[in-house]
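Person: Please comment on this record:
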Amino acid sequence: MRSSVLFFFFWTASCSLLTDVDSLKGGPNSEGGTDGGAETGMDAAPPPPPPPTCKTDGFACVAEAPSGWTGPFALFDGLATSAPTCAGATPVQVLASNADLVPAAPAKCAACACTASGVTCKGNFAVDGDNGGCTACNTPGTMTPNVCHSYTYGTVICGGYNATNIRFTGSATVNSGTCAPDVAKPTPTKDPFSFNRAEIGCQGSVTRVDCDSGYVCANTTKPPFAKGLCISHAGDLPACPGAPYSQRFLFNQSATDTRDCAACTCGATPDALACTATVVSSASDSSCQTGTMVTVPGCSSNYPGYAKLTIAPPGKTTCPASGGAPVGTVTGSDPVTVCCIP
């Protein structure tokens, strides 16, 4: 404004100077002038430029944003693949949001597994004599695990004293143990998620030049932006502040991914798997430290003789496992309320 005043001052002074020179030369406005408006040799200065105005194409006076709100700005709401950027040096991006979350596939989770520790076995075992071919020929006797037994003629009778083999029968299963999951929960594998739509807000020049109180001069919108300007406020507000910004939208500026795998759980007791039963059979070692190793059921020719039964759990005893199912989903978060001029 000061520069305009100064320019006007100098322009006025120049005009006065021209008037004085014209008088001195006997111009048409001087007393007794006879030259009829002779040329002075000086052109008049142009008038000062008009002040800025909001009536220029591309600008309009619009209601300013209420306290706590951002804007006004132009809003794009469309396919994410068509989202523009805020072009130009003056416009700035004031909103970047998204909508229409594409349903995300559940997490992929490996099956849970449980292993038992401190496992013991139980079972019933028998022993009897045999004339050959490892077939029973008598009511068998019992066999206690981890005890070195002596089997002589008369203790296992089969066809009198003609037995040449001794036969071991029976089986064992897991009796007890403590179950625990191999992992607390499977590690989830998650596919990417996306949004079908995007919202971009671009704010251009905002001034109060040539607008009434409560209004600002702002850039008008052009496609692909919506026709009416908008304002925004962080959070999910139940209503817009009022006219002219009365058309309410709710967008999310980010997303929360809670997809995961549930914890693994185990049954109370191990699976009833078969335990391994073996016998050390010897014709002469009364301590059962050496001899022929026989897998039960099976036969040994060390009769009469000595035998010791051992039963052991499988290399890895498992337990009933459950859990590990996919849980959670992807939801929009960090909401922002946008209110536009319809």
